[in-house]
Design a protein that fits this description.
- This protein has one domain (about 5-80): Pemi-like Protein 1, Chain: D (Ribbon).
- It is an alpha+beta fold.
- The termini are far apart.
- A hairpin with a 5-residue loop joins strand 3 and strand 4.
- It is built from 3 helices and 4 strands.
- The protein is elongated and about 65 Å long.
- A two-stranded antiparallel sheet has the order 1-2. A two-stranded antiparallel ribbon has the order 3-4.
């Protein structure tokens, strides 16, 4: 099956036929993995969600966020109940 490369903003994109999208179970916003093989072909497949990698990214992100005073206490002190 031949796919046409099209311009999308400053990038290029491949339009995947709906039949293949249904077979792969893809949806708008889904992530796919693209790999260039040794023989120069392009392999595209649905990305598998990796729970451990996500947990590691989340831990790193939390480490870069400084803890501050709770916002709710500040809001409650100015609220009229």
């Amino acid at each position: 099956m031949d796919l046409q490369v099209a311009k999308w903003g400053n990038s290029l994109a491949l339009r995947i036929p709906s039949e293949i999208v249904r077979q792969l179970g893809l949806h708008e916003g889904a992530t796919v993995e693209a790999q260039l093989t040794v023989d120069g072909s392009l392999s595209i497949r649905p990305a598998q969600w990796n729970r451990k990698a996500f947990a590691l990214e989340l831990t790193e992100a939390r480490g870069s966020m400084p803890m501050s005073e709770p916002v709710m206490e500040e809001l409650r002190s100015g609220a009229r109940y």
